[in-house]
Amino acid sequence: MEGGVSLSEIHTKKDTLYGLELLRYVNLEISKGTLERVIPIVCSFNENSDFMLECLNKGAADYLLKPIRPEVAKTIFLHVHRTYTSPSRSTEYPRSIIRRFSNLEDRLDEIFTKDKWLTNTIIQYYTPSLSPLDIPNFPRLNSASEIERTNILKKKLTDWEFDSHKLSEDDLMRCVVIIFEHAMELDELRELSISTDALHRFLLAIRQAYHDSNPYHNFTHAVDVLQAIFFFLCEMRLLPSLFSAGYNRRGKSSNKQRCRPNDLLRDSDVFALLLASIGHDVGHPGVNNDFLIQSQTPLAQLYNDKSVLESFHVMTLFNLMQKYGFKIYESEPPCETKYSEFRKIVVNAILATDMQLHHKYVKDIKEQKSRFESVDFNPSQKLEEEKNIIIGALIKCADISNTARPYHIAKSWSNVLLQEFTCQGDLERKLGLPVGPVNDGRVSQPDSQIGFIDFCAMPLFKSVSELIPEIGFTLNYLEVNRKTWSDKKETEGDNCSLRHNSSSGNNSEYYLFIYLVS
Ligand SMILES: [Zn+2]
């Protein structure tokens, strides 16, 4: 300690890049205000003048050659004086930033570093901490010991009675790998030659980023949605069946429709849908958008109260892809256009799962159906928009498909959803926020399910079935389930607080059921 100045030497590896990285990090912390009254001075054995200048450009106040002689050390305090009396301190920006902005590359570096820091901080805060991924021990599905189990799971995956609640954690993961490895065999994706290890690493990271503690929005729900979308795509013959070698890319055709959704989707769109399905709720905190907005969480503020969770899921999914080297298309030339198209599809698919936009999507789907019947309609004019409506329709159906599964499966999903809402109700009470009627049990389970089928599920599945006849099989399940819930309501007694068929024009029940799944 001399003259109020404290000297600290930071020892690092000898690698010069590491030294510059450290300098960049220190300067970033200074610019954010995390490090106060720190002046970085580089001390090194490196006598290369280019390196010395680079250090100064990266924000070092000075460069001293090692070993440092005592008489040089005595003058280091002069740097402190120079820095704190410099005219640049009168501006609102730290001196280091202004100097580095003189170089465009450094400025970009600064922007990207801050961006990365922000993304990582948000994701670390909201997702479970990722433990090291156990890739070497991950089962190869074609190994002798796995074949029998793989075949059993393949049969389950091709059945609409698929019940992910009945599967072990390992089997859930096997199902995901079966579907993705199968999709990788599509012509357009085979060309990308993505390694099995990269795929497994990424999928394991996705699994870890879901909160197991959520009764509903957990990895089991993600696998359920993935299987539903996989089932739809196989029905539409956009994916071959798991048990057939070849397939014809054709689907059922409705008489009047001149243009068919099946004809507009390419292999990369199919893969984007699968990816969006497994990642559409990644990192979900177990409370809905309303809760995040009402309690004014930083996440809600970040996204200005609009599709808060969905925006967060998209960001987390792409962050994991980047972090674990899962590259579908390079984000640089010559593949940048393909990458940006692919990214748009995934982003739009996940944003479409925001239930606040539910009725807008139902309207869009109906209008698309009319356009597709028109004689002079040319889909290539607005191909991207038309594709987004189809993709949105499919993932929305998959996201709430549990209401259209056989009743015993639909009921188990309804049970865990109510559990999650009850937990949210406890938090709302604790924070002094208004507690929703579904969150404190004021609405009976049969009533909430009947309302959800009437106001959300049936209008969606009906309009999608008209556009895509292959989805039509779900309508029968919905009708049976509605009747079963209705019978249950009668046998258990009418203790619900909501009146249906209200002629008052009050649409409060509409909002109530929108609140159910988001
Ligand atoms: Zn979901």
Automatic annotation (TrEMBL):
**Which GO molecular function annotations are given, in alphabetical order?**
3',5'-cyclic-nucleotide phosphodiesterase activity; metal ion binding
Q: Which InterPro entries match?
A: CheY-like_superfamily (IPR011006), HD/PDEase_dom (IPR003607), PDEase_catalytic_dom (IPR002073), PDEase_catalytic_dom_sf (IPR036971), PDEase_CS (IPR023174), Sig_transdc_resp-reg_receiver (IPR001789)
Cofactor binding note from Swiss-Prot or TrEMBL: Binds 2 divalent metal cations per subunit. Site 1 may preferentially bind zinc ions, while site 2 has a preference for magnesium and/or manganese ions.
Its EC number is 3.1.4.-
Question: Entry's Pfam families?
Answer: PDEase_I
Where in the numbering of this chain does the PDEase domain appear? 131-492
> Which keywords fit this entry according to its UniProt record?
Hydrolase, Metal-binding
Response regulatory domain: which residues? 1-81
Q: Which GO terms describe its biological process?
A: phosphorelay signal transduction system
**Required co-factors:** a divalent metal cation
Q: Which residues form a coiled coil?
A: none
CDD domains this protein is in?
HDc
Q: List, alphabetically, the SUPFAM superfamilies matched.
A: CheY-like, HD-domain/PDEase-like
Q: Which family does it belong to?
A: Belongs to the cyclic nucleotide phosphodiesterase family.
Q: What is this protein called?
A: Phosphodiesterase
Q: Which organism is it from?
A: Rhizophagus irregularis
